[in-house]
Every structure is written in C-alpha cells, then in structure tokens.
Amino acid sequence: MSFFKKITDSVSKGVTSATEKAQQTVEITKLNAQISGKRKDIDKLFAKIGESVYEGYVAHDLSLAEAKVMPRCEEISAIRDEIAALDARIKEIRNEKDCVCGKRVAEDTRFCPSCGHPFPVPEPAPIEKTPIQVDPYVPDDSEVVTSETAESSEEENASNVHADQRQICQNCGTPLYADSHFCPACGQSTR
Fold first, then answer.
1. Number of neighbouring beta carbons within 10 Å of residue 2
2. Domain boundaries, the chain
3. Is the pTM value of this prediction over 0.70?
4. For residue 64, how far is the Cα from the chain centroid?
5. Are the beta carbons of 90 and 31 closer than 8 angstroms?
6. pLDDT tens across 87-117, in order?
7. Crossing angle of helices 63-94 and 2-58, rounded to 10°
8. Average per-residue pLDDT in the chain?
9. Parallel, antiparallel, or unpaired for β 96-98 and 104-106?
10. In CA terms, which of 76, 87, 148, 183 is 20 to 30 Å from 103?
11. Contact between residue 72 and residue 48 where contact means Cβ atoms under 8 Å apart
C-alpha cells in the first residue's frame, strides 16, 4: 500500500510543481506584455517631444517647445519607473538578480560567473525560537554510524558520481555553467 502512496505523492508533487511553473510563466508573460506596452508609450512621447522641438525650431524660438517637452519628459520618467517595478517583479518570480556587468544570475549566486563580481552575503532570516522537543528514540548498536562506516559510504558515494571535471570548480567543487569564467559559489577563476 505504501508503494502506491509514494507514487501518488510523487505525481501530486509533480503536478503541483508544473502548475506553479505554468502560473509563473503566465504571470511573466503578462508582465512582459505590460512592459512592451509601456515602451510603446515612451516611443510615442519621444515622437511628440521631437515634434515640439521641431515646431520651436521652425518658429525660431526653442523656448516655446520647453513648455510642451518638460511634462512629457516627466511622464517618460514615471513610465520608466513603472517598467523598473515590473522588471523587478519578473526577477522576483524567477528568483534572479542583476550583476554590475549586466548579466542576470540566480538569487543565491555569491559571485558572478561572467565577471567574478562578489555579491554581499544575505542576512539570514531570524529563526523563531520554539521549545525543543526531544525525540525519545535511542538507536541500538546496529544503527550507530562509526567513522569507519561513514568513510566507506563516502567512498562509495564518490565512486558513484560521474562528473566532468571541466565543469566543476577546482576550489570548492561547485558545478559550473559552461560559459563561467568565475565560480558562482567561491569566486575562484575557472581559467
């Protein structure tokens, strides 16, 4: 019976995960559509600014254009702020952040894989203190792990791992992206 429960649980988790990914994709698509619309609005405002400046040029008095240009420039700034907020929401959904070099990386990356820029280590969230409940279970001698059994199981695990050494950081062992110049975990150069 537990076999079927395990299958049901794993299928349920897969469906839940797929549903969440689909919802994220739909939300990101909507946000990108909003960003695209706002960029078109900015282009229209730029065209109006150009017309106003040209009209001032034709009248040989560019100060006439200033009254029309300034409000439109402020409107462009407001729209750009809205675009930045939408882009921040997309990064939040994707769990990403931007590097100073312009590359977008995973939120938990400590060093940029392209330029090696170090990211500050985030402050850990405060842990709520709750009373500790002690498990009364005490293992018998057959379940106690000795240092010898631990070493042999580590050797077995190490022999089971088939990793391409070119894609693992030589300093800390973190898997690397194919185009990484620096390790995202320790910042070590990969070249």
1. 7
2. 2-94, 99-121+163-191
3. no
4. 47
5. yes
6. 999 998 888 888 999 898 888 888 888 888 8
7. 170
8. 79
9. antiparallel
10. 76
11. yes
